[in-house]
Amino acid sequence: MAEYVGRFAPSPTGPMHFGSLVAALASYQEARAAHGKWLVRLDDLDQPRTQPGAADQILRALEQLGFEWDGPLLVQSSRLERYHAVLDELTRRGLAYPCSCTRRELEDSALAIDGARIYPGTCRYGLAPGKAARAIRLRTHSAPIGFADAIQGWLEQRVEKEVGDFVLLRADGIIAYQLAVVLDDMDQGVTDVVRGADLLDSTARQIHLQRLLGARTPRYAHLPVALNASGEKLSKQTGARPLDLSEPKAELARARRFLGQGEEGWDLARVPRIRAIYAPG
Ligand code: GLU
């Protein structure tokens, strides 16, 4: 059987909630069904959003819920040297470039699907005289980048038009999620990414970066995300309630139902083929 390496990559911004349980459960079940490995990685680069103690809480929650991960935990903040080395390499190759644009200067650009501004390419051919670099962006192209998502079907995006050259190093000096996730998946030999559909619109960007780095593109399966009563994605920011770890069986059963599963077994084909599901309470 071909090797399967899956992963769960929570951001330690708060205790585990129902939305993160759904991603953990589906990625775990898929890896186990394939007799593969299931890795856990902490996406802790966004220090301003990181909450002290949350990483430990998440790991303890995973244990209490009965998840067992393979190999050592990977912590993104321990890999800054690697991320910066690749950033330098991309810059040397002329693929990444410094950008001086402020949020304010981009206010006239159209909104991308994820609510950020489509980058109009202002600094693509060099900084305007007197301007200082704030961020580093990756050059994109106009050809469509497509992928067959195992749940959501065929998707494609023209990254240059729909997103624009995107940020690899943020103005606050933090390595952007898009760069870190691609390098982590590549370095860990991840073959299968199972995660929330809120990241569907990031996938073409990640594939673009994988191609530039000569990395293999994993298979993708994007799960419906759970929405609260106001139609927002469950997250710490939207006040999602932490999982009740005194009732691990009940929480798992609820996540299984959300994913369209019966009481027993696991079948990805039963996961509803939509991007979001209302799941209050
Ligand atoms: N850390 C991201 C999140 O919690 C997941 C990143 C990924 O799975 O690629 O939403």
- CATH homologous group name of the largest domain: HUPs
Tell me the major beta sheet.
3 strands, parallel
Query: Helix and strand string, N-terminal first?
Result: EHEHEHEEEEHEHEHEEHE
CATH structural fold name of the largest domain: Rossmann fold
Q: Given the structure, what is the number of helices?
A: 7
Listed once per kind, the bound small molecules are: glutamic acid
- Which descriptor suits the 3D outline? globular
Number of domains: 2
Characterization of this structure:
The chain has two domains: 5-80 and 176-278, Rossmann fold; 93-169, Alpha-Beta Complex (Glutamyl-tRNA Synthetase, domain 3). Strands 1-2-3 form a three-stranded parallel beta sheet. It has a three-stranded antiparallel beta sheet with strand order 4-5-8. The chain has helices at 18-33, 54-64, 80-92, 159-162, 177-187, 200-212, 248-258; strands spanning 5-8, 37-42, 74-75, 96-99, 135-138, 145-149, 153-157, 166-169, 192-196, 219-223, 225-227, 276-278. Helix content is 28%, strand content 18%. It is globular. It is an alpha/beta fold and 281 residues long. Helix 1 packs across helix 7 (248-258) and helix 5 (177-187) packs across helix 6. Bound molecules: glutamic acid. Glutamic acid binds next to loops.
